[in-house]
Amino acid sequence: MDSEILSHGAFSLAPLAMIRLDLRKTRDLVADRKISLDGDQCYDNASVCALTNSVDILDLNSAAHSIVALDGKATPERVSHIIPEKLQKPFAKGLVALLHGKSFSIEGTVKSADGMDFPAQITGWIDTRSGGSDEVMIGITKLDQPRDSEKAAILGDLPMPQGSRCSGR
What we know:
Oligomer: single chain
CATH superfamily: PAS domain
Strand content: 15-25%
Order of helices and strands: HEHHEHHEEEE
CATH class: Alpha Beta
C-alpha cells in the first residue's frame, strides 16, 4: 500500500482535529521584523496580528472541519480566523517556536464555527513528511473539563496576551 495514500487516509480519518499550515509568509515576517522566540517585546498587538494572519491553511481533516467550518460554508483560509483572542499571543509564539524546530502546546477555551465554546488543547508540530519546516500541523483536542486557567507551553510557560483580536479580514 502506498505510504502517501495511507498517511493521507490516516490524516483524513483521525478523530483528532488536524490542520496543515503553511508558514512561508510567517518565516519571511519573522526575519523582516527580527522576531525572536524569547523577546516578549517582539509580541506587541501588531506583531501578533501579523503573525497569525501570515499563516495559510493548506488542508484540514474531517474532525477539524467539523470544528472550524459550518456545513455548506467555506473553510477559513487563514488560521487567524480560528484562534480565539485569549490564545493569539501564545499561538503567535508557538508559530515562531515551530520555525525554530520546536513544538508547542496551548490550552484554553475555543469557539467552534457553530458558536459553542469548548475547552481545548492546541498542539503544533513540524510536518516531517513535507520535507521542509514551512509546512506544520496543529491539532485541536477537545478536553473533557476546562482547566483552571488558560496556559501555554513552549520551553516553559508563556504570558497570556492582552489586547485586541486579529481578524485577518
